[in-house]
Amino acid sequence: MSRQMMAKPLLGAAALMVGGLLIGGAGPADTIRLGLSLPLSGGGAIWGKGTAWMCDKAAAQINKAGGVNVQGKVYKVACVAYDNKYTAAGGASVAHTLLDRDGIKYVLAMGTAPILATQSLTERQGDLLFNLSWGKATKGPKFPLTFDVFNSPAEIGPAIIKFIAKTYSSAKTVVMLNVDDATGRETEAIMRPMWKKAGYRVLASMFYERGTTEFQPTALRLASYKADIIDLPTLPPPDAGKVLKDLQTLGVKGVKILDDGTSASAVEATSGRSALDGVYMGAAIPIDGPSFDARQRAISKEAKAAFGDPVNLVNISGYDAMQELVAGIEKAQSLNPHAIAKALPTVHFKSFYGDVGFGGAAAYGVNIQPLLPVYVTQVVNGKLVDRAKVAVSGK
Amino acid sequence: MMSATFVQLVIISLEIGSVYVLFSLGLTLIFGIMKVVNFAHGQFFAVSAILVTILVPFLAAHGLPVLPAYFLATATTVAVTVMIGWGVYQFGLVRFLRDMEGAFILTLGLAMLSDGLMLSIFGGAPRPEPVIVPGTVRIFAVAVLAQHVVVFGAAVCITGALYWSMTATRLGKALRAIASDHEAAMLQGIPYRRLSRDGFLIATALAAIAGALMAPISEVTPAVGNDYLMNGFMAVVVGGLGSVPGAILGAMFIAVIEAVGGYYVGPSAATMAIFVMVIVVLLIRPRGLLGRA
Amino acid sequence: MRRRDHIVWLAGGLIAVAATRLFQDAYSISVVNLVFIACLFAASFRFVMLIGEMSFASAAFVGVGAYGAGVATTLLHWPFALAMLVGPVVATLVSIGFGLIVLRIKGPYFMLIGFAFAEAVQIAAAQIQVIGGPSGMVGIFAPRILDAWMQSFVAAVVVTALYLLYRLEWSDFGRLLGAIQNNDNVARTVGVNVLGAKVTCFAVASFMAGLAGSLTAFVNNVIAPSDFGFMLANFALVYVKVGGERSLFGAVAGATVMVLLSSYSIVLGASNELFYGAAIVVTILLMPQGLAGLVEKIRLRLMAPKAVRREA
Hints:
Oligomer: heterotrimer
Structural class of chain A: alpha/beta
Shape of chain C: globular
Radius of gyration of chain A: 22 Å
CATH architecture of the largest domain in chain A: 3-Layer(aba) Sandwich
Number of helices of chain C: 13
Number of domains of chain C: 1
Largest interface: A-C, 56 and 57 residues
Radius of gyration of chain C: 20 Å
C-alpha cells in the first residue's frame, strides 16, 4: 500500500468537512418561508412547476397587500421549491434540506411517497405539513400537524358518483383503470367501495405500470367488459389521452370519467379533440364558467403562458397552501407550528376559489380539509363545461 | 369465438411491435458498431417528436398543406437531430468507442442534461399533436388508427431498407465487418472511426424518424424517450445485440407478451412478464435469439 | 495486505468515524449518512466490476436490504442488530441463486439482465400489500440510544465493510477475480472454478449492497419500491467512474463528491437534473480515469523532475 493510498481516507474526511462548509444558510429574519417539496423533473414536472408558480403568485399578492402581521411585526412571505423526484428518498433529502438546513417550519409536499418521508420528519420535529396527495393514509388524527390543501378522491368521488347516478340512471356497471403507484392504489381503495356503496357493480379494476407507452391491449380489455361506466381516476394526462384514443378506435360507448383529470387541454394534446368529447372530469377548473371571475381568469391565463397549463386543482394548491398558512399565522398570532395547527381548523382563508373554512371530520376524523367546492365538468368540443358544483361539507 | 379476439391481438401486436422496432433499430446498430449501450437514444427520439409538433403547425400556418408540412418538418427535424448527434459523437462518444462503462455514463449524463434542457425550453406539458393521417381503417373488421398503419408501413420499409443497405452497399458491408471483428476490418483498411461515426449518425437519424412517426400517436413530452428506452433495451437484448433481424424479432416478442398478457391478465402483470421472459430467454440463449456466439 | 496497511486502515477509519462527530446539526448529519451509504454501495458495485461485469441487479439488492430492515423492525419487532442483518443475508442468498443461473452470461447481456431484474423486483414489491405496496413502509427507526450517534454508527459500519472489501480485493481471492476479468477461459483452463468464484464475488457484493439498503432504511425511516429502481445502480456506476474504478478509494471519493454535489444541487430547484447531468458529462470528458486518475497524473508530474534529477 503506497503513501498515496494512505492519504485517501484522510482526503475523504477532508472532502466531507468542505461539504460541511457549503452547508448552512437561512433566509432573512422577517420573511416567512413556505417550503415546497415537488416533482420538478421527469413526467411530474408540470405539476410541480405549476404549484411552485401558483405559490409565488400568492406570495406576491400577500406581500403587495402588506404582508403578514404577527403581534405588531410585519413579515413578508416567500416560497422555496426543491425537486423531490416523486420518490421517498428524494422526499427525505428535500425534507432535510428544507427543515434542517434552511430552517423552514412549514412545508407543502406533493406525492404520497415523498409525503411519507416528509411527514416522518415534520410530525416528529414539530413542523407544519400541507399534504398534496390523493390518498387518505397520511391524513387524520394520527398526524396533528398535517393539513389538506385540496379536494382528493374522498371529496371528488361522492360528487361525481352522485352526478352520474342522476344523469345516467340506467348505468349499473363500472370498470376501473389506475396507475400502479401509491397514488393509483390509494385512490382505487377509496373509489371502488364508493361505487359499490352507490349500488354499482365494479366488473374489474386494473392497474398499469408507470412508463407504459402502448395502451391498446389495456383498452381492449377495458372494452371487453362492456361496462356502462369507464372510470380512469388517476391517469396522468398523456396516458389518459392514449387510453381515450384507443377506446374511441374500438368504438367503446360507455360514460368515461377522469376523476382526477385536471386539464382538458393536457389530455386533448394526446387524445385529439373527438376522443375527449363527452368525458367527465372531477379535478378540472371550469375557469371560463360562471363560478369564476375576471381576476381568476387572468391568473389562469398568466399561468398557461408561464408553464403551459391553466390553473387546476393541483397547482392551485400552491396558492391555497400559502393562503392557509398566512390565515393560520394571523389567527394564531404566532409563528409556532403547533399554535398555527390549533388555529387552522377554525380559520377562514382566501382560497383561490373564494373564502373557505375547514371541515372534513366525516372523512378524516379531524377538521383538516378546506371546504372547497367540487366541480364536475364535461369536455364538450375541447371546452370544459360546468355540469355540477358541489359544496363539500362534513364538519 | 377465438377468431375476433385473436385477429385483434395479432393486429395490436403488430402495431406495438412496429413501434418498438423503430425505436430499437438505432440502439442495436450503435451496439453492433461501437459496442456501447446508448442511454440517450430516447432523447433523440423525444427532441425529434417535440420539434415535429412545433414545426408542423408553424408550416401549416404559413399555408402549407398538412402532408407537405409534415414531410418538410420531418426532414428538418432529422437534419437537426443528426447535427446534435454529430456533436455528441465528435465531442464525446468518439473517446469511448468500445468502452461500455465510459459510454454508458457519458450518455446517462447527456440524457439527464437534455431532459433538464428540454424541460426548461419546451415545458413539461404534453404538446398538442398534429393530425397527419386522420381517422381509422378496418383490417379484417378490426378498426385501426390510420397513423398506426403508416407507422407499421414505415417500420417495414425502414427495416427493409436498412437490411438491404447492410447487405448490399459498401458502407453496410464495412459496418457489418466492423461489427463482427473490428480489428480484422481495420487491418483490411476499413476506417473504423469514420465508419463508426457514420453508423452512429444513421442510428440517430433512425431515432429521429421514429420520433417524427410517433409524434401523432404517442404522447409528446420531454420525458417520452425514457419510457420507450426500457422496452427498447429489452427488445434489443432478447433479439441479440447488434443484430437487425434480432431487433425485429425481439420487438415482436415483447409486443406479443404486452398484447396477450395485457389483454388476458392485465397491463401491470404484462409489464412484469416482459422482464421475466427476457431473463428466461437469455438463460436459454445467452446472446439473444439471433445473437452470434 | 501488509501489516502497515491494517494500521493505516485502523487509523483512517477511526479518523473518519471521529470526524462524523464534527457534524451535529440535523441537515449535515443527513448528508453525511447519505455520503457513507453511497460509498458502501459504490464499493459494492465496484466489487462486481472486479470480474469485469456491471451488475444493475444490485439496485434490487439494496432494496432487499432496506425491506429486510423495514419488515424486521415494523412488522416483526426484531432487535436492531438482527434487523440490520436480515436484509443483507436475504440479499446474499437471493444473489447466490440468481448468480448461479445468470453469471454464465457476460458483458452487456448480463448488464441488461440486471436491468430487467431490478425492474421486475421493483414492480413485484409494489404488488405486495403486507410490505406497503407502492407506498412502501414507514416508521423504520433505529433504537433511541443511537439517535445522537446515527452518523457515527453508519460511518463505522461502512468503514468496516470497506475494509473487508479491500482485504478481499488484495487477497488471493481478489487476484483470482482479476484473472477472471482478464480472461476467464485462461483461468478455467488452469483449473479454477470460474463460476464459483464469480458467484462468491457477486454474493459478497450483494451482502454489502443489502447492508447499504439496511442503513438507508434506518436513515430515511421511510422506504418505497421506487427508491430502488435501476437508476440507483446507474448512480453507483457514476460514483465509481467519477472517482476512478482502479481503486476502492476512487469509488469512495467519487461517491463523496457526487453525493455532496447532488445535495448541493437540490437548491437549484428545477435545474438540479440539468446540473447533475452536466456535472457527469464534464467529469467523464475531462477525467476519463476519474479523480484517482487525476491524482495520479498530478503525482507523476510532481515526481517527474525528481526522478530525472536522480538519474542525472
